[in-house]
């Protein structure tokens, strides 16, 4: 069990600008946010407001201009590249709107690919039986074991997203970062993916942060943050699986530090 103060991932005072033609474009202007272990949190905000930028920083795919990222009690943004890679490869799973599957590989090969890349050839050969069993188990977890040998072109969008989810689970991560996981799917298929994410959250104790454009989806989250003008506002009215009202014991985690 987790308490509401049990933050698995935290961003403190995050600032990030992009530069174009010597002009500075401030995107994140001092974001403070904490993600509670065991919760499914939605991140909403208009297009271009910086949601993906924040997620990239949380995943250490990019570095903030200033501010800190903490995971499970350790500061991670200032670690060496190797340490950040290790964090990304072992503690978190990432899924994207457009799945990012390799088109020439089958479902099971896609699930295995990151584990193969991370190992030396010898290491892969040594572990391959175990890895394959794990990949099969993950495909089974998302209900797609019978599609193991299908290529992405032979699968629907929802099936491709499930393969991407299976791939993200390979390293047994504590947390899943999902950037518009239903953004490319029809409502019904999107609902199936959401149910799967909720199942992983509740049954496998996976903490989830999910970017979405869809307020109806955000309302199903335990907690919702809205990105606005480079800052994050918490919306404590949208909590607890769509039941409106202030969640018992919830703390306002996002502060707007300009
Ligand atoms: N590499 C880059 N160089 C310059 N500007 C960038 C770069 N990446 C993103 N931006 C700009 O930063 C802003 C925030 O982008 P970001 O993708 O984080 O927004 P978002 O809220 O996720 O949008 P969407 O909901 O449309 O995906 C946008 O205005 C975008 O054009």
Q: For the CA atoms, what is the radius of gyration?
A: 18 Å
Identify the strand order in the major beta sheet: 6-7-8-3-9-10
Shape: globular
Ligand set: adenosine-5'-triphosphate
- How big a fraction of the residues is strand? 25-35%
The computed structural class is: alpha/beta
Q: What's the total helix number?
A: 7
Give the low-pLDDT segments. 237-258
- What's the total count of β strands? 11
Largest sheet: 6 strands, mixed
Helix content: 25-40%
Helix-strand pattern, N to C? EEEHEEHEHHHEHEHEEE
Distance between the termini: 34 Å
Mean pLDDT: 88
List keywords for this structure.
ABC_transporter-like_ATP-bd, nucleotide-binding, ABC transporter ATP-binding protein, alpha/beta, ATP-binding, ATP binding, 5-stranded antiparallel β-sheet, 258 residues
Question: Could you give the topology of this structure?
Answer:
Elements: E1 7-20, E2 23-36, E3 40-45, H1 51-58, E4 66-71, E5 74-75, H2 81-90, E6 92-96, H3 107-118, H4 121-141, H5 157-169, E7 175-179, H6 187-203, E8 207-211, H7 215-218, E9 223-228, E10 231-234, E11 255-256
Parallel strand pairs: 3-8, 3-9, 6-7, 7-8
Antiparallel strand pairs: 1-2, 1-4, 2-11, 4-5, 9-10
Helix pairs in contact: 3-4, 3-5, 4-5, 5-6
The structure holds adenosine-5'-triphosphate (ATP).
How would you characterize this protein structure?
The chain is α/β, with parallel strands linked by helices. 33% of the residues lie in helices and 27% in strands. It contains seven helices and eleven strands. Strands 6-7-8-3-9-10 form a six-stranded mixed beta sheet, sandwiched between helices. Strands 5-4-1-2-11 form a five-stranded antiparallel beta sheet, covered by helices on one side. Helix 6 links the parallel strand 7 and strand 8. Helix 3 (107-118) packs across helix 4 and helix 4 (121-141) crosses helix 5. The longest helix has 21 residues, at 121-141. The structure holds adenosine-5'-triphosphate. The site of adenosine-5'-triphosphate has 12 residues, from strand 1, strand 2 and helix 1. Adenosine-5'-triphosphate (ATP) binds next to strand 1, strand 2 and helix 1.
């Amino acid at each position: 069990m987790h308490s509401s103060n049990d933050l698995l991932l935290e961003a403190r005072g995050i600032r990030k600008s992009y530069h174009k033609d010597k002009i500075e474009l401030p995107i994140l202007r001092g974001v403070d946010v904490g993600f509670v272990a065991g919760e499914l949190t939605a991140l909403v905000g208009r297009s271009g407001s910086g949601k993906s930028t924040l997620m990239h920083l949380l995943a250490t795919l990019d570095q903030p201009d200033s501010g800190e990222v903490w995971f499970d009690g350790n500061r991670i943004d200032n670690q060496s590249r190797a340490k950040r890679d290790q964090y990304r490869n072992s503690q978190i799973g990432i899924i994207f709107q457009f799945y990012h599957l390799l088109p020439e590989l089958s479902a099971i090969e896609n699930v295995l690919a990151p584990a193969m890349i991370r190992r030396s050839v010898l290491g892969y050969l040594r572990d391959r039986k175990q890895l394959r069993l794990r990949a099969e188990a993950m495909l089974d977890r998302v209900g797609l074991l019978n599609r193991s040998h299908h290529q992405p072109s032979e699968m629907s969008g929802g099936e491709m997203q499930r393969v991407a989810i299976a791939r993200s689970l390979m390293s047994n991560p504590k947390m899943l970062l999902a950037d518009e996981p239903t953004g490319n799917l029809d409502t019904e298929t999107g609902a199936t993916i959401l149910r799967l994410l909720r199942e992983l959250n509740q049954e496998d104790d996976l903490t989830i942060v999910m970017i979405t454009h869809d307020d109806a989806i955000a309302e199903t989250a335990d907690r919702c943050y809205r990105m606005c003008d480079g800052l994050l506002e918490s919306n404590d009215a949208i909590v607890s699986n769509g039941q409106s009202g202030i969640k018992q014991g919830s703390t306002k985690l996002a502060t707007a530090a300009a």
